[in-house]
Design brief:
The protein is 3% helix and 51% strand. The protein has one helix spanning 3-11, and strands at 20-32, 37-45, 54-59, 65-72, 75-82, 87-90, 97-103, 109-115, 121-127, 134-137, 142-149, 152-157, 163-168, 173-179, 186-187, 194-198, 205-209, 216-221, 229-231, 237-241, 244-248, 257-261, 270-275, 281-289. With 298 residues, it is mainly beta. The chain contains 1 helix and 24 strands. A 4-stranded antiparallel sheet has the order 2-1-24-23, with no helix packed on it.
Length: 298
Amino acid sequence: MKKTVLLIFVLFSIATFAQNATEVYLFDLIKNDSTNTYSLKNPINISDNVGFYDNQPSFLNDGSGVLFASTRDGQTDVALYNIADETKSWLTNTLANEYSPIQTPNRKFFSAIKLEDDETQLLWIYPFSRRKEKVLIENLTVGYHVWIDKRMVVSFVLNDPPTLEVSNLKYKIKYPIEKNIGRSILKIPTTSLISFISQEHADLEIYSINPVNSEKEYIADALEGSQDMAWTPDKTIVMGKGNKLFKLKPGEDESWIEIASLEEFKLDGITRLSISPLGTKIAIVIDEVVEEASESNE
């Protein structure tokens, strides 16, 4: 395994290939409005890359596909799964490793973290046309990010402790708004607010924050033992643990409610989640235990 892959695994608290690999599964997410429950149907392994790292899914803005980081030839590139065609294509083929791809608001580009051989780690922007990519934010070691609008990005920055920082691309200014945060940062549907998981206390807590004035508000305690979440379009939070999914709708649910299990699909080890813009699909990263790894993966 390349040194750069090992480095980012340490930074992102992901086990090395010799211990764990991951796969990205896509499910139909079906809501029963009468009972306010959900079910999962039609699982598809969209990464289909046994024994390797496949992670960080995000839906295209129109819900037609899923971007994710996927390993090939000893490095990590950005892949796109087309839902209608059921096909996987590669969007990057650089000498570096790319992670955490997200489509930009204008839909012409996607942004991703690029980790270079010299351990430089910056946020880059890539045209879907495969023309030359370029650095989006200089001098900021970004681990994860989310777009607020076409001129504003909020990033998880690898400081000690990690900080939440806003980059205004129009005015070329950057400023921190929170510290000691977890890796799950998301735009709250139909708002200009960001959700993040605070690590300030022993129990992880979910907050909303205004990226312009830094005003924040407690939402709920995170699901115990979980650090990844997703929002449905009706502002319900979904988190996973083991082989089960749980939901909590702020203002309605007093505690986390189990809504689905992956046991029937013989899947376990839920980590990252992404829900489609219409709330009809969910991408779930599953831990895949690999008993042994070849020397080429060490």
